[in-house]
Design a protein that fits this description.
The chain has 260 residues and is of the alpha/beta class. The protein is built from 9 helices and 7 strands; from the N terminus they run E-H-E-H-E-H-E-H-E-H-H-E-H-H-H-E. A 7-stranded parallel β-sheet has the order 3-2-1-4-5-6-7, with helices on both faces. The two termini are 34 Å apart. The structure holds NADP nicotinamide-adenine-dinucleotide phosphate.
């Protein structure tokens, strides 16, 4: 299947590591142009150099997306460099463990800034350009939006809101031919996940315990499996799919636990 996204420009937040990196590389495989946005300058620059050395194109924008004014600047820089935006992948985020009992109001609000408000801001400023290309938007959410975890109110609020916004924006942007979908991962081995795993005394037995409960093949989802779904949804090959939550999770959220 040809995705026909050559030379098209896609902004990927958190595009230098984990799921975002896999999406960036999948876009490059299709000869599209990723704009890698995130706060990890070294990782982003290394990745962009590798892409350019292999004959591809990429732009790096180093930014903490939780800061005011950053998202407009990302859009302005992208337009200055390429003159178009064909899609936005809202992906940057981290489970920051701001709980209800042990957290605080200010920590909760900070979590919203780091994990949610930039999803809105980036798309808000991108819309005029997405109207011109009939672009596509992907919000990377999390199973926590639907299953709960405990001890992480901020992150859960953000991930739930991302799913609501996916449907809300799908309606508001449909008249312009802009599609909006969400991807819902559950357990994906990434630098963020590894960091969390290493907080346990015995990470090896913890990962065994986790994967034993994943219905399909009792294994982690790979970042590439999320990336494949994302790039398909960005492309015109999914041209009548909008307002959907796609679960690339080995059945974690929907299949009966009795089978694991
Ligand atoms: P990751 O390995 O930490 O990669 C995320 C990248 O985004 C990192 O480079 C990180 O920078 C950057 N980033 C995060 N918040 C940012 C912000 N506010 N401003 C700028 N850059 C920011 O994480 P991942 O596991 O690939 O997660 C990607 C997305 O998938 C997140 O939205 C996460 O909630 C979601 N998700 C992941 C899993 C999983 O199992 N991995 C499950 C469900 C949902 P630093 O390196 O500086 O932190």
């Amino acid at each position: 299947m040809e995705l026909k996204i050559e030379e098209k420009v896609f902004i990927v937040t958190g595009g230098a590591k984990g799921i975002g990196e896999a999406i960036t590389l999948e876009l490059v495989k299709e000869n599209a142009i990723p704009v890698i946005v995130g706060r990890s300058a070294d990782a982003a620059n290394r990745l962009a150099e590798q892409i350019k050395a292999d004959g591809g194109q990429a732009l790096v924008i180093v930014a903490e997306l939780g800061e005011d004014g950053v998202c407009k600047d990302v859009i302005d820089q992208t337009i200055a460099a390429f003159g178009r935006i064909d899609g936005v992948v809202n992906n940057a985020g981290a489970n920051d463990g701001v709980g209800l009992v042990d957290g605080s109001s200010s920590a909760f609000k900070n979590s919203l800034m780091k994990n949610l408000t930039h999803y809105y801001d980036l798309v808000h400023y991108a819309v005029p350009h997405l109207k011109e290309t009939k672009g596509s938007i992907i919000n990377v959410s999390s199973k926590i939006a639907l299953t709960g975890q405990g001890g992480t109110s901020g992150y859960a609020a953000c991930k739930g809101a991302q799913l609501a916004l996916t449907r809300e924006w799908a309606v508001e942007l449909a008249p312009f031919g802009i599609r909006v979908n969400a991807i819902v991962p559950a357990e994906v081995m990434t630098p963020l996940y590894e960091k969390w795993l290493n907080t346990f005394e015995d990470p090896a037995s913890k990962i065994k315990e986790i994967t034993s409960k994943i219905p399909f093949e009792q294994r982690m989802t790979t970042p590439e499996e999320i990336a494949g779904m994302t790039v398909f949804l960005l492309s015109g090959r999914s041209s009548h799919t909008t307002g959907q939550w796609l679960f690339a999770d080995g059945g974690y959220v929907h299949l009966d636990r009795a089978i694991t």
